[in-house]
Here is the input.
Amino acid sequence: MTSDLDFGVGKELSLVEERIRQAIRSQEALLTDIAAYVIQAGGKRVRPLVALLANRAVGGRNLERTVQIAAALELIHSATLLHDDINDGGEVRRGREAAYKKFGLQNALVTGDFLFVKAFAIGGKFEPEIVDLTASVCTALAEAEISQKRNAGNLELTREQYLEVIRRKTAMPMSAGARIGAILGGGTEREVEALSAYGLNLGLAFQIVDDILDVIGDPGSLGKPVGTDLKEGNMTLLVLHALNDGSDSRLRLQAILREPRKTPDLIDRGLALVRDSGAVERARVDADHYGFLAREALDDLRPGPYRDALARLVDFVVRRNA
Amino acid sequence: MTSDLDFGVGKELSLVEERIRQAIRSQEALLTDIAAYVIQAGGKRVRPLVALLANRAVGGRNLERTVQIAAALELIHSATLLHDDINDGGEVRRGREAAYKKFGLQNALVTGDFLFVKAFAIGGKFEPEIVDLTASVCTALAEAEISQKRNAGNLELTREQYLEVIRRKTAMPMSAGARIGAILGGGTEREVEALSAYGLNLGLAFQIVDDILDVIGDPGSLGKPVGTDLKEGNMTLLVLHALNDGSDSRLRLQAILREPRKTPDLIDRGLALVRDSGAVERARVDADHYGFLAREALDDLRPGPYRDALARLVDFVVRRNA
Here is the structure.
């Protein structure tokens, strides 16, 4: 959890939490309860962190407005978690029963809509450029969801296509948060571009580590079972690596991926094949690569504690085990 | 269908259609296809009509921006249709297979999110007052959905509580559309308030007629089966009337409403009880009452063809059979 670490914006993060609590208040107590269940379960708050640190790193103007946007980004993220769990049938999230299981599909679905709306009620108060950025993040999320499902079990998927999916699913929200934080903070054009590149590469690294953890993570620390990607037929980078290791075992993995109904035993065997293929190690190299690019982007920023914190955030993201 | 009628804003409505087509374009063809499937199936376009007519009735400034908002309101409406069908298990919508049945739950859910986002990308470009109005419509929709479900089968529901649900579900979107159309059109404060009241009462009448049609409508014209409300345990105005007619048959209706799993036969018997109770006629009186209030609100507008068209729209809404 990032909350264990000090990135120097603890006070700002607690303002974000307060803004979120305020946003999810509703005369329908159930909406507030479900929203709080999802949001207050923790989560790493990486999106708000990126926006806040980017803001601080370029001078920290408009802190209050950056807090607003950081809250909006976390609300959007939470909305997608609610809807994603419905979509992929995930039963556990952050160590607790998935909201749609606990509160019912309809209530979880509507709460997701409610969170999207609350995010936009915040985001809609900003300049057109920022409205567009926020909307494009959400559009990209929806497109990535469709694209990922369309390519489920697609053994022909290329690395470039995979990267495009995770760019839209994970990297764009982080990049947009960094960009907006930097714009509001009063950054120069060069700083704004640097932080956009930082967020993009951080997001790519983040998602690749997510993919890794779904293969070798500890369900206890993760708060959810592993093997979800394989079960869904998601063509993660690890699967792509394992399918391209030139060995006989890739044929067995192909057969598992082609199986429409994957039993727990089949998933276990698939995970073992992926692990034994060396895909985890190759994916780590990839995550490190994007982490390196993220840190490299920071060279265009003035030195200081927030630039250092952004660099530490890369390490945290790449090395995390949950 | 309103498209058969001439309210004098046919050209403006086609601009709305064009704006919607533009909004739903996506690099993921499936998103565009599902969105078009829902939106282009027709629909009465009452929300855009109200906004456009309100704009024209007060002078018609900012037509282009009113077209944008009218498109956003229809996108929001379509998003809720997509999600509502998932929620209530409706299998047919506008005479066609419900989108989630045809395209799968996940794809329909994500497309709903996509439409919300596209609506907000439009709405977010407006003044804070209009952003707030648009967001409050969506919040109210989510709250109404929760409230309606919370009160399913609640035999103690009062008429006031029912009206509060339909105010949020149907009347607020129309009222907000009328209000925004009037603000953008350059209306005086008095005109803006008059048109808000018009939209609110039109929306209440609209929903009561919807409730009536779910009891006595022709499935062929409606493009969906009747009895959905009863199946869901929705406490519509007709059910409230039927439960308060002082007859023995209300006890039989109570028993049906308490039944957790309602067979088609049980629903048919429930519908017959509602019809025989005189609830339809009493609900018609209610719908006429709100229609009257809507027309009365128009007294504060300058006379002219658009005021007349707004009055004709009330007649259309109250008398429609689909």
